[in-house]
Amino acid sequence: MAITYQKALITANEQMTDTVFLLKAQWSAPTQPGQFFMLRTWDKAPLLSRPISVHNWENGIVEFLYEVRGTGTDLLSQAKAGDFIELTGALGKGFPVENISGKVAVVSGGIGIAPLYYVVRALVQKGCTVDFYCGFRDKPYGLEKFEALCSNVYLATDSGNYGVKGFVTDLLQPEGYDAVLTCGPEIMMEKIAHKAMAAGTAVYVSKESHMACGIGACLACTCKTKGGPKSVCKDGPVFKGEDIYADC
Amino acid sequence: MLTVNLCGKTLKNPVICASGTFGYGSEYADMLDLSKLGGISSKGLTLVPKYGNEGQRLAETASGIINSIGLQNPGVEHFIAHELPDMLKMDTCILANLGGAGIEDYEKGAELLDATDVHMIELNISCPNVKAGGIAYGVKSESAKEVVSRVRKCTTKPLIVKLSPQAENLVDMALTCQDAGADGLSLVNTFTAMAIDLEKRKPIFNNVYAGLSGPAIKPIALRMVHQVCKAVQVPVVGLGGIASGRDALEFIMAGATAIQVGTANFIKPDITMDIITQMQQWCDKNGVKSLDEIRGIV
Ligand SMILES: Cc1cc2nc3c(=O)[nH]c(=O)nc-3n(C[C@H](O)[C@H](O)[C@H](O)COP(=O)(O)OP(=O)(O)OC[C@H]3O[C@@H](n4cnc5c(N)ncnc54)[C@H](O)[C@@H]3O)c2cc1C
Ligand SMILES: Cc1cc2nc3c(=O)[nH]c(=O)nc-3n(C[C@H](O)[C@H](O)[C@H](O)COP(=O)(O)O)c2cc1C
Ligand code: FES
After folding, report:
1. Cβ B63–A217 below 8 Å, yes or no?
2. What number is the ipTM of this complex?
């Protein structure tokens, strides 16, 4: 699919929690689960566009679920329906939905939930059974949509105010799953990947990196893989666990 | 109207994409018509493939970015076999940006490139992100003289030497490279800079220092280009923070024959198309029929 750079009309930018927003914009070209866009709603400052995953793409609308972290995401949160957003995408290689079947565990940590809804939808559509494991610091968000599609939803929070107190990494037993998909903090993904690899279950991780171009041109986002250096933006952001993490 | 002659080669316009910010061109092919560009400079190449630097490679600053890529590249031979053939089909001037870990590497790299159809060699003696080679030759005029004169013997291609703003004496450096056989000069490469992670109480970059680029450096780059243009006879390619047609024209008025656009490609992937249009419009509006009329008038 060709990468395009376009201005897109924002149709909604809803606040989900104190810091999390869901932005919707018109985008008719197909996007794959796990892909992302470089986006901006500002002119020349801050200089770089921000990488944000596709949360969902349906009926010509692309959705982004994002957490306000700094200048860029703060500006993004101020955008209103009717404004325009500059999008470069869809970028990268997403989850290999075509190679996944059977019983799948999808594991998120915090805002790592963002790219996972679209892939859950695609997996359920092709007949997979999906269990969703999620970890949040405190109050969870966006779970209703997962509850509607998944066989089970397991929740862990740091605070213990919702779900089980503890880490989502402790909830997952990868045995019995055909594949594990995960997105979240680096240490969480590493733990999940090691657990899955030890159980002989295929595991896919969605990585983050600082990015300037998002298209494989600047080499800012290079990571080491079994097959040599790869660009997170172009060859990823989704990688097979064994390509990134040494065998345990 | 915007056509320029750079070291004997006619460019459609003076806008060249800067090394390291435009990959090998193909990455941007979906988003703009590459044949409308004046030229493309490849990612910095070395004789031996390089992984580049470990750790975080990028930080954003006010109106700029700091990078610590460290010349990640697949090596000159891989470039010649795989990336160059596609680049030569792009119908624009192709510059191979050549770095080296030592003089022999530069020489061998230049010999290999000389045997190809690449249009020009841009000799990078100014990368602040590699310990050996790179900027090691770009600070003292004496060491630049040696590299440039030896590489000069290895190629008959137009040889443009890319200078560092960290040169001890930039004008002297420029004159030395000209006298050592450079057909042209490009400047500037990035400024050595730094960023600190407060929470970790550590530098962001493993190498501690890294290279600053983008609009933040434009006024200083412009001054340097002006000083060098006043001193040398060979054509100068100006760069550093150019993000609009007006920025580009400032460099032309300062004396540059052509300009390069680097970091601004990250603001908007087709910003070079805007820059070309804006230059054209300014010339139309101001009755300028050729850039020769305004080049170096300041
Ligand atoms: C492929 C990919 C997909 C992502 N998807 C989402 C998503 O769906 N939802 C979401 O909330 N966040 C996502 N992120 C993280 C998001 O890009 C950062 O939170 C955001 O860039 C922060 O920008 P800022 O200006 O608010 O913060 P600042 O701290 O002001 O940003 C400063 C600079 O650092 C970069 N940066 C800061 N944090 C990160 C980070 N974690 N990863 C990469 N670069 C960072 C910024 O892009 C910017 O260049 C994704 C990151 C990547 C690489
Ligand atoms: C990510 C990045 C990678 C770069 N890599 C190279 C390189 O390989 N060789 C080189 O000569 N210059 C390299 N540069 C320097 C640019 O070509 C240019 O000289 C510098 O960024 C100043 O121009 P700008 O402000 O328009 O970016 C790089 C710059 C950036 C931002
Ligand atoms: S962000 Fe430029 S190569 Fe990945």
Report:
1. no
2. 0.95
